[in-house]
């Protein structure tokens, strides 16, 4: 498959030299806002920005790319971002429009793919509340949003990373940090992947949740029938996708997330885009900045090293995914590139 010049550059920037995505997210908003409000007295912009800057300073040397939000992390801590790392920027608001039929994802007012590209980012991240059994009007809204973002990413030739999340119907609107829907069924995650793998959406990287709830996931090496069933769900995800996919942590604790990653990497995932599993325990040291930084170094960084070892042992580079079986071929990469490239 041929790939456009900008998207090819994006994928190379977001991954490491081996073709793995070792990406770290610091775009979390409600949970950090709540933490600062509780301990500082208000969700102060500078305090939130300072938390994100510390995380960027400590973690970016060990990531292939960083995911930043445009509300706090990028405007406050842009100078802390290592220009040798890839940069993903969030498009969506965390808040959503919720009704009896489900949740509709909203984009920040005035924010756009064009602005993300213009500031120099390598990719656009869209988190999408999604249930295949949501009301028809909700599904129509969500499908149209992803199609529009995919179209704009093609127009601006930048990678599009989609993060679909299952949520409980009839729950309260998303106002705090995302918590995994403990009642989700693996079939929902599979049906979501099956929908958004369609070419009309233009997804370049899938950021996926575990099909089996983190709270009940068994050790992949315990030899049990349940471990075999769990691996089969992850294998089915990989069988559906010809493009790269990475795992999200959804705030899972370190050990459950290690288990999730092991299943995913063995199935064919090309990496991870994780945040709270790596740094949330350290963030709870706030406002003791020295203790916060020390805990990132003493606990967060060794965990990053552990999951990167798992990835190197079991993961599959994005360059080996079926879409690129014929090798990486840049679209219009011949002598007429200057004339044909659309930009």
From TrEMBL:
GO terms for molecular function: 6-deoxy-6-sulfofructose-1-phosphate aldolase activity. InterPro entries: Aldolase_TIM, DeoC/FbaB/LacD_aldolase, LacD_aldolase. Keywords: Lyase. GO terms for biological process: 6-sulfoquinovose(1-) catabolic process. It comes from the Bacteria. NCBIfam families: PRK12858.1. Belongs to the aldolase LacD family. This is Tagatose 1,6-diphosphate aldolase. The lineage of its organism: Bacteria, Pseudomonadati, Pseudomonadota, Alphaproteobacteria, Acetobacterales.
């Amino acid at each position: 498959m041929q790939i456009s010049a900008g998207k090819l550059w994006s994928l190379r920037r977001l991954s490491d030299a081996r073709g793995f995505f070792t990406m770290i997210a610091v775009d979390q908003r409600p949970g950090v806002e709540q933490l600062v409000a509780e301990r500082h007295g208000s969700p102060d912009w500078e305090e939130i920005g300072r938390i994100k800057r510390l995380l960027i300073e400590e973690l970016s040397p060990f990531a292939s790319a960083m995911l930043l939000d445009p509300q706090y992390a990028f405007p406050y801590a842009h100078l802390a971002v290592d220009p040798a790392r890839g940069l993903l920027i969030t498009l969506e608001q965390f808040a959503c429009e919720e009704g009896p039929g489900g949740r509709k994802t909203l984009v920040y007012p005035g924010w756009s793919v064009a602005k993300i590209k213009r500031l120099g980012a390598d990719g656009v991240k869209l988190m999408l509340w999604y249930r295949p059994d949501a009301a028809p009007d909700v599904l129509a809204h969500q499908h149209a949003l992803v199609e529009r973002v995919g179209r704009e990413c093609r127009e601006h030739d930048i990678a599009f990373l989609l993060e679909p999340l299952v949520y409980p119907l009839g729950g309260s609107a998303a106002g705090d940090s995302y918590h995994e829907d403990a009642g989700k069924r693996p079939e929902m995650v599979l049906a979501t992947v099956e929908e958004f793998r369609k070419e009309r959406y233009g997804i370049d990287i899938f950021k996926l949740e575990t099909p089996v709830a983190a709270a009940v996931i068994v050790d992949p090496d315990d030899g049990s029938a349940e471990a075999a069933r769990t691996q089969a769900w992850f294998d089915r995800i990989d069988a559906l996708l010809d493009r790269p996919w990475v795992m999200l942590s959804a705030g899972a604790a370190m050990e459950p997330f290690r288990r999730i990653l092991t299943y995913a990497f063995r199935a064919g995932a090309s990496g991870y885009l994780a945040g709270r599993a790596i740094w949330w325990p350290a963030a709870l040291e706030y406002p003791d900045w020295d203790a916060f930084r020390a805990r990132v170094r003493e606990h967060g960084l060794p965990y990053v090293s552990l999951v990167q070892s798992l990835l190197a042992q079991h993961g599959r580079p994005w360059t080996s995914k079926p879409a690129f079986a014929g090798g990486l071929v840049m679209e219009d990469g011949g002598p007429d590139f200057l004339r044909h490239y659309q930009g």
